Amino acid sequence: MKIIKLAIPVFLIAITSCSNQNSDTQTQVASPVSVTDVKYGSIEKTISTTGTVSAVKEATLSTKISGDYILKTNPGTGHLFSLGDPVNENQTIIAVEDAEYLNGIGLEAKKLNLDISNQEYKQQKSLFEKGGVTQSDLSKAEVSKVNANNSYELAQIQLSDMSVKAPFRGVITSLPYHTQNTRVSNGASVVTMMDYSKLLLEVSLPEKYINEIEKNMKIRAMNYTLPEDTLTGTVTEISPAISSSTRTFTAKLRINNNKMKLRPGMFVRTDIILDHKDSVIVIPKELVNSSNNGKYVFVVNKGTADSRHVRTGYQDNDNIEIISGLKINDQLIIKGYETLRNRSKVKIIK
Description:
This protein is an alpha+beta fold. The protein has helices at residues 10-27, 99-105, 107-130, 135-160; strands at 31-37, 40-52, 54-62, 67-71, 73-74, 79-80, 86-87, 92-97, 163-165, 170-174, 183-184, 189-206, 218-222, 231-238, 248-256, 267-284, 289-291, 294-301, 304-315, 319-324, 331-335, 346-348. The chain has 4 helices and 22 strands. The two termini are 71 Å apart.
């Protein structure tokens, strides 16, 4: 039996193979993607840190004499002063009354003596200019006037000791209870107040920033309970010393809190703004992919996904600066890029 061998031309196999490849390319499904035009924006270089804020001013006020405790009425509310009440500078919060102490001051008598001494000095000065009295007589009158003035000023100080007054504008944060008209001792702590219209924050920063951070740099402060409110402030102090154990240095920040939204003791996150750039290409950080060859993004180029290697610069919580690899008006893929490969077919959707 004779076996017949059939020879299949090589060129037919080649044609069949090419035909299959073209068919695969033509039938490849285009991936739906969303795009945005690359545009210029702005970005900052920041240091993020956290800490607990404290009031810019705080004072615990005590009685300076013993006497009867009288909590005063707040003219703003019509009620006795209470926790959380705002007070003005030099406003009397508590009075301490003692009739014996008041009589011992003798303010009226000392005021009368001062008036008499002033008149006597004027008369002696007039006579001295006319040659009617000696220099010694004038000097005695002057000494008498000075002593009377000192005595009157001391009496005024003693009288002010009968009132507990606010040393600055602030808010009452502690008010230990005392029954009205009961006796309190000298040196009793009766009220604590704070001014937290500005807040202080002391932070520790990595030593690598020691030559970048400067006084008066702007900051932003945020608290998780107030996500919509971002407060501003400045760097006020910088320590030149670096801790050998933590490799950090200390900086002090002041936060503007005019609307009293933050409270002393709150935990905040702050961003110290080291630098600011305008008119640079900025995109969302999440769009930048990484591989062994570096960072890349996808742009649409003639119906396909073009993988662009990029070099990045500053970045913040959401965005990143693109130094090279993208140009203005490139169609950057912002949705559907997760499964793409270089030269994948894509279809732009809204």
